[in-house]
Amino acid sequence: MSRAVTRKAHRWRTVPPAFDRWRAVRSTLTFGLCLGAVTAVAGLHYGVFAAIGCYVDAYGTRDPYPRRGPVLGLLCAGFVVTFTAGSLVAGDVWAMTAVLAVVAGGATLFVHTLHLSGPGSYFVVLVSALAAFLPPVGLAETVTRACCVAIGASVSWLSAMSGRLVRPYAPEERAVSAAFRSVAAFADTARRAAAVPPRGDSSAARRSACTAVHAAWAALEDARGRGTAPAPRRLALFDLMVRLEAVFDTLQNATERGGDPVPATWAPWLRASAAAVRAGATPGSPLPPSGGSAPAPPNRAGGTPGAPPPSRPARAPRAPRLPPRRSLGAEMRHAVSSASPAPTVALRVALAVAVGTVLGWALPLLHPAWVAVGAAASLQGGPGRQPSQRVGSRFGTVAGVAITVLVAQVHQPGTGATVAVATVVHGVSRGLPPSALLLRTLLNTPVALLLVDAVLPKPDLAPLAAYRLLDLTLGMCLGMAAALLVRGVPLRRVRAAVSVAVAATGSAVGERLRTGTFHAASESTAWQRTSDLWTMHASVPVEEIRATGTADRLWPSLLAIRRLLCWNLLRDASAPAPDESARVGDFLRALSGAARTDLPGSPGIGSALSRVPRTPRPAHEPELHLTALRSALEDAALPPPATEPPRETD
């Protein structure tokens, strides 16, 4: 494929996201209300603590409201508890070190376990460290300050949930709309690639579409309550996602097998459907127009690949066969299991924060909390990038410090100016896209300096800014040292995640073949284990100090596992096949055992798979997908560099 075609195929992935005006306005009003009201009543000293509680607004922006409410409520309580704990141990270096290390490790586990969107454990560490390094105060003053933090956190919680009154399903609709748009881009890319002899490469668009579809399913899963029937709108979105899976599966089959080109009418239909979903409506047509010789997508009402789409009106969505949800206890047990990346990540952050606390106490620094905070920032302080990239993005702090020092030479802001500037800058920084981390740090630095300057006994903004740069640089170095010492996610955890996902998929496919119908428990477990593998795939490159390509090795296997589960999802009831079920189960258990030996595509797993039969004959229906899974584990043909998956954002 020519460079021009490649650029056109990937242009849609590189368009920067727009400024979020609604979030900026909401954060400005919340921050200004808390900081201004508490300052007016009790003084700027206490207003600052209320503003610290407002940092809750950095989290949960993508989470559906049924999940956002309780999870952000727990985070608000965590802000108050960690602030109180830090304040109570102020003045005792070893108690401070223990508390901040536990806070950092526990907050990291919390964020990883609940997949809370936002900047990791960074702001939890910030709140606790600022309290710990302030001069010690009595119990009554600690309670008063904690109440101010609670005010800011509570108002931020109300602000984060305010959209539920207007668009209660907006987060899920945005996720489903994004999935439709990504599949549309994949359809366009696949059609253009088929027109370029030899057939061009559409793997990057396919990978991004798969990522968006996974995110939409995760949003719908997060929106589900426990013990309550899903709302009609969520049932409609679920039904749309099943239909989108059918379209996506057909597109993948067309690109893999080199058959007829994708009809040109599919991409416009998908974009129109995305716009309708984003607007809160339901697309008028249940299936895309055929518009060519490509097979119509299968559907759960009995359609098959190769048949024209049925000419019937769109039916009302029926209650889907939703599998049971994993309990919170099961989530916590998985967080510390061998297939989770969270324990090593938490250990790395806790170690860096602990050493930063000791150094901040021992060295003659003006405000030493920034050493521990800087260590957390380099490991958990931004979108999904490697520690070295996060450190590079923090050069915005340098610019922010320089601006603050220059302004401080000619003007020392009073109370009103401090409240106004901090409020406006905070709101603007929240509206910026997560990818603009450099600009975010540039804006956040003067705000943090103004707030800290307001609570110090002897405020002096210019030297405080200079020391902030020194403290943060030391903290960043500590974070990088911790990243070198505790090196990413252990490969044994990566292998375990692959093995468990393959085994769970084998159980689900085997049950479907044995009974011919949907089996809720095995299907639920298989999708959960695949989601865990997806989390591992996203976590590995984020925690590496230097790129190793491990995540790229995982991608073909992750895609093959997902295709098998989609085969289960899209397949109608059929006659049981117990013998075939047993053969498929044995085959996938053998693949699962081989996956524990080494990473996909390595000589170790190739040697282990050499003793496994090529396919479980006769597996006439899922045979192609089973063969693809074995090939992905054995060969793991790596995609080109341009197919790097989209980074996680807050």
Give an overview of the whole structure.
The chain has 650 residues and is mainly alpha-helical. Helices cover 67% and strands 0% of the residues. The chain has 25 helices and no strands. Helix 2 (21-42) runs antiparallel to helix 3 (44-53).
Helix and strand succession? HHHHHHHHHHHHHHHHHHHHHHHHH
- What is the first-to-last residue Cα distance? 34 Å
Mean pLDDT: 81
Q: What proportion strand? A: under 5%
Low-pLDDT segments, ≥5 res: 1-16, 292-320, 640-650
Counting DSSP E segments of at least 2 residues, the number of strands comes to: 0
What is the tally of helical segments?
25
Summing up helix and strand content along with how strands pair, one would put the structural category as mainly alpha
The biggest sheet amounts to: none
Shape: globular
**Roughly how much helix do the residues carry, as a percent range?**
55-70%
Radius of gyration, rounded? 26 Å
Topology:
Blueprint: H1 3-10, H2 21-42, H3 44-53, H4 65-88, H5 93-114, H6 122-132, H7 139-161, H8 170-194, H9 203-222, H10 232-257, H11 266-278, H12 328-335, H13 342-362, H14 369-380, H15 387-393, H16 395-410, H17 415-431, H18 437-455, H19 461-485, H20 491-515, H21 520-543, H22 550-570, H23 578-595, H24 603-609, H25 623-634
Helix pairs in contact: 1-8, 2-3, 2-7, 2-17, 3-7, 3-18, 4-5, 4-6, 4-7, 5-6, 5-12, 5-13, 6-14, 8-9, 8-10, 8-11, 9-10, 10-22, 13-14, 13-19, 14-15, 14-19, 16-18, 16-19, 17-18, 18-19, 20-21, 20-22, 20-23, 21-22, 22-25, 23-24
